[in-house]
Amino acid sequence: MPFVDVLEQTKSAAVQALAARACLANRLAKQVVGVDRARLYQQKDRALSKLIVLGAGRLEEILLSQSLVTLSLPNRRRLHVPIRCLSVDARNSVLTKTKDSLIKGG
After folding, report:
1. DSSP state of 83
2. Residues 7-56: tens digit of each pLDDT
């Protein structure tokens, strides 16, 4: 198997694992309180940030007035994340896509 194919399979598996992790962390965070809830939401935010940087999640909606991003995941789930909770790279990607969309009139 060519190395490029191995990389693509690895990326696909990583994307699926990140999407599953984000969904699980989100679901568990809704069931707990306090520090545990905050940590679970941080895990979700980190997973979503990586998915955005990898280009694996589709940005469905960016509500600048609420500073909120809705991301469609490869596992057909949709999750919301505050822009401030994204990594710097993910935030830059979201803001660049928003700017490009506004310039194109979308």
Report:
1. G
2. 778 888 889 999 999 999 999 999 999 999 999 999 999 999 999 998 88
Sheet holding 78-82, edge to edge: 58-63, 68-72, 78-82
- What are the CA-CA distances from residue 13 to residues 18, 28, 47, 78 (Å)? 9, 22, 14, 19
Tokens of 27: 């679901």
What's the pTM? 0.85
**What gap in Å lies between CA 98 and CA 44, rounded to an integer?**
22
| Residues spanned by the domain of 67 | 3-104
pLDDT band at 6 (very low <50, low <70, confident <90, very high): confident
How many domains does the chain divide into?
1
Strand 78-82 and strand 68-72: the pairing is antiparallel
Handedness of CA 76, 80, 86, 89 (dihedral sign): positive
The full length of the chain comes to: 106
Residue at 20: amino acid letter? A
